[in-house]
Write a structure and sequence with these properties.
The chain is α+β, with helices and mostly antiparallel strands. The protein has six helices and four strands, in the order βααββααβαα. A four-stranded antiparallel β-sheet has the order 2-3-1-4, covered by helices on one side. α2 packs across α3. It is globular and about 50 Å long.
Length: 178
């Protein structure tokens, strides 16, 4: 299968990335490493991080690329490998991954969606911020520490009592229910 990704120059994209082992909690356990790697990649390959939530085994991010740039895949490759290289090699690595020199931390593929308009942008930001509630980690989005909702509240974009009902979403935004 010849998989094709979006290639909008200067586009804003929504992403979902998952750990290979969905029972692990590496992303929150090693959040500082993940945050540092993302910041390092942002300096080398600039992008605007519009919103993000990190859950134990997956993350959602919304970011905007510079005007003449559509290369989000290099950024994610650098983030995934940069994060993986800082972790001890404790995971099981199957033959296929081993033959390619890969770790067994991340799922190989990820979900991406190009944001089409202001309503699409707002829906995805709301989805990102509501995600910890959706998965039952907290009762209120503000109670999840690994989310840009805190920055949105600090800037006065959202009220600290913000909530969003799951039934207001018209799709699953790339999440796979197992």
């Amino acid at each position: 299968m010849n998989y094709r990704r979006s290639d909008v120059m200067g586009g804003t994209y929504f992403f979902t990335l998952n750990l290979a082992d969905r029972k692990k909690t590496l992303l929150v356990d090693e959040f500082v490493i993940l945050r540092n790697v993302i910041n390092k990649v942002k300096k080398q390959h600039p992008f605007k991080l519009d919103a993000m939530v990190v859950l134990p085994e997956h993350l959602h991010a919304l970011f905007t690329l510079p005007i003449n740039d559509n290369d989000f895949s290099t950024r994610w490759m650098l983030i995934k490998t940069g994060f993986s290289r800082q972790l001890p090699k404790l995971e099981k690595i199957n033959v296929s991954r081993k033959s390619k020199g890969e770790r067994g931390i991340w799922q190989r593929r990820y979900w991406e969606h190009v944001i089409r308009n202001d309503m699409d942008f707002e829906k995805h930001i709301n989805y990102i911020h509501y995600n910890p509630v959706k998965h039952g980690y907290v009762l209120r989005a503000i109670d999840w520490p690994f989310s840009t909702i805190h920055e949105y509240i600090r800037k006065g974009i959202l009220d600290e009592n913000w909530s969003y009902e799951e039934n207001d979403f018209d799709c699953r935004f790339g999440e796979i229910k197992l």
